[in-house]
Amino acid sequence: MPDAGKGIGTFHMPYHVEKGGTYLKDASVLAGLGCIGRNNILVTPEFGPRVRLRALTLDAEIPSTGPTAFDPCSDCDDLCRKACPQNSFGEKLYHSNDYGQEILPARDGSFSRPVCNGQMEEDNTVAREQTVEGFDDPVKVIKYCRNCELACPVGKN
């Protein structure tokens, strides 16, 4: 629906790819916001991996800055990988020959989404309902692992 003041239309974009959304990490890299780190998370110069992504689709031509040369992981000590309680980066699962490209999950093909999701499922099961400001009824508050994210020194002051 176009904005009366600017004439730019906006469109709802679903979060999930299977419902018409987009890969937000990849789109963020192409937009020049950062790079995909060795923790398989978008890493930005200012905030490191501590960002949350959402998308807004505009009916307007906006030039892209394109990918950036920012790469804090090239000389990193793998603090993110070492912090993973499930060892989600312990085995190379993806190979460039199988995918026909050099860009692989966690850069070297070692990220196991099912193993990481196992930790998330465990986090879901231990979550408790709590009273939260702004909600009338108690809500289930899930404290996801985030160890790989929080161990990354990029963007910390």
Question: What is the compact description of this entry?
Answer:
By secondary structure, the chain is α+β, with helices and mostly antiparallel strands.
Describe the structure in your own words.
By secondary structure, the protein is α+β, with helices and mostly antiparallel strands. It has 2 domains: 1-73, no CATH class; 77-152, no CATH class. 22% of the residues lie in helices and 10% in strands. It contains 5 helices and 6 strands, in the order βαβββαααββα. The strands form 3 sheets. It has a two-stranded antiparallel sheet with strand order 1-4. Strands 2-3 form a two-stranded antiparallel sheet. The relative contact order is 0.18.
Query: What's the total number of strands?
Result: 6
* Percentage of residues assigned to helices: 10-25%
Give the domain tally: 2
Strand order of the largest sheet: 1-4
Strand content range: 5-15%
SSE class = alpha+beta
Element string (H = helix, E = strand): EHEEEHHHEEH
Mean pLDDT: 91
What's the number of helices? 5
Instruction: Report the principal-axis shape.
Output: globular
Distance between the termini: 40 Å
Task: Summarize the helices and strands and which ones pair or pack.
Blueprint: E1 9-11, H1 24-30, E2 35-36, E3 42-43, E4 57-59, H2 79-82, H3 96-99, H4 113-126, E5 128-130, E6 139-141, H5 147-151
Antiparallel strand pairs: 1-4, 2-3, 5-6
